[in-house]
């Protein structure tokens, strides 16, 4: 990647966007993590410079370790409420995100001693406050932390069915993929889908295309989290194109976790040129030293896009979202209006 600032930085910063793949804890702004670390002293530094060093990942396993250390800072509902509100504020004010489907992992908070009812109440309080203060609309996806296996799947399903708010739209599966087969969660996903939740598992991020096939066949995936290795199987890529199954692409995340060696080798170009539904997202932005704006700039460079093309990426994310059609139309109109006046 060129180290120069993108010629489209100003355009991207003002572009109204939808964010479809962003993790709750993973998007904790450093100042929030520092404040929480001060409240709960332990392994996570409360100094901002030390925090940056702490976030330098050796590999995917190390990333999970660091992630769980931050999870450990969320000890009570007030921590959850603060974190959620500050994430929403950052998305609204700094990234011009108008709508986000945020991935929550209630299982890890319950393990930390927060009752699921209190967890849901805290995120909902923050959602309402952020929408009131900044006009950003948030919806939730509950995801299974795969490293905890099938019991975490059953628990997450129970949280969704018994305690999920009306704003819960998706059901996902995250964590490491190696050694965590997708297929074992088939029954859990069947029941989540029967309850009206959309299936949005991670697949093909650190494993091959067969995992993406598993997610499609066994989990009824309606969008694929990452799907990076899909390009290794032409039949799979053709299937994703034909069925219009969106890929939630997060370029910097893939570099940070070493899923892809270099930006120049990122498969986003192959996906895009094949006609796949490519959305650009930020995953765990402060942990990966990025922002959604930066991800759009990187995608613009990798895909050789001009302003219209960049606006097209934003529109694709809106269409790939689970927003009702009338709300999609309103947001698409906002993107159009911005592009006309900014262009
Ligand atoms: Zn993710």
Fold and architecture overview:
This protein has 343 residues and is an alpha/beta fold. It has a single domain (9-342), classed as TIM Barrel. It is 52% helix and 13% strand. The strands form 2 sheets. The protein has a 5-stranded parallel beta sheet with strand order 1-2-3-4-5. β7, α11 (234-242) and β8 form a beta-alpha-beta unit. α5 (77-94) runs parallel beside α7. The two termini are 25 Å apart. The mean pLDDT is 94. The site of zinc ion (ZN) has 6 residues, from β1.
Could you outline the blueprint of secondary structure elements for this entry?
Elements: H1 9-14, E1 17-23, H2 30-39, H3 48-54, H4 60-71, H5 77-94, E2 97-104, H6 106-111, H7 116-134, E3 137-145, H8 149-163, E4 168-174, H9 186-194, E5 198-199, E6 202-203, H10 209-219, E7 224-226, H11 234-242, E8 247-249, H12 251-256, H13 268-273, E9 278-280, H14 292-303, H15 307-319, H16 325-342
Parallel strand pairs: 1-2, 2-3, 3-4, 4-5, 6-7, 7-8, 8-9
Helix pairs in contact: 5-7, 8-9, 15-16
The structure holds zinc ion.
Zinc ion is lined by residues 21, 23, 174, 202, 225, 283.
């Amino acid at each position: 990647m060129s180290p120069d600032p993108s010629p489209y930085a100003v355009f991207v910063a003002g572009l109204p966007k939808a964010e479809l793949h962003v993790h709750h804890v993973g998007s904790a702004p450093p100042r929030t993590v520092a404040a929480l670390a001060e409240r709960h002293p332990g392994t996570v530094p409360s100094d901002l410079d030390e925090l940056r060093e702490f976030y330098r990942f050796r590999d995917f396993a190390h990333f999970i370790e660091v992630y769980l250390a931050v999870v450990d800072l969320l000890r009570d509902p007030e921590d959850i409420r603060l974190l959620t509100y500050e994430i929403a504020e950052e998305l609204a004010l700094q990234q011009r995100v108008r709508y986000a489907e945020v991935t929550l992992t209630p299982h890890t908070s319950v393990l930390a001693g927060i009752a699921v009812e209190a967890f849901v109440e805290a995120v909902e309080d923050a959602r309402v406050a952020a929408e009131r203060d900044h006009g950003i609309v948030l919806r939730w996806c509950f995801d299974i932390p795969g490293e905890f296996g099938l019991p975490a799947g059953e628990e997450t399903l129970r949280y969704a069915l018994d305690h999920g708010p009306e704003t819960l739209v998706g059901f996902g599966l995250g964590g490491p993929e190696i050694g965590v087969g997708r297929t074992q969660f088939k029954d859990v996903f069947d029941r989540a889908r029967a309850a009206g939740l959309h299936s949005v598992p991670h697949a093909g991020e650190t494993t091959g295309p067969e995992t993406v096939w598993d997610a499609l066949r066994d989990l009824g995936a309606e969008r694929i989290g990452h799907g990076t290795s899909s390009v290794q199987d032409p039949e799979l890529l053709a299937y994703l194109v034909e069925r219009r199954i969106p890929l939630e692409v997060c370029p910097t995340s893939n570099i940070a976790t070493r899923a892809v060696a270099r930006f120049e080798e990122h498969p986003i170009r192959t996906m895009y040129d094949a006609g796949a539904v490519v959305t650009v997202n930020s995953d765990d932005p402060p942990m990966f030293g990025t922002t959604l704006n930066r991800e759009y700039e990187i995608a613009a460079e990798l895909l050789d896009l001009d302003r219209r093309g960049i606006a097209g990426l934003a529109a694709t994310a809106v269409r790939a979202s689970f927003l009702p059609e009338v709300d999609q139309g309103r947001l698409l109109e906002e993107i159009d209006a911005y592009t006309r006046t900014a262009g």
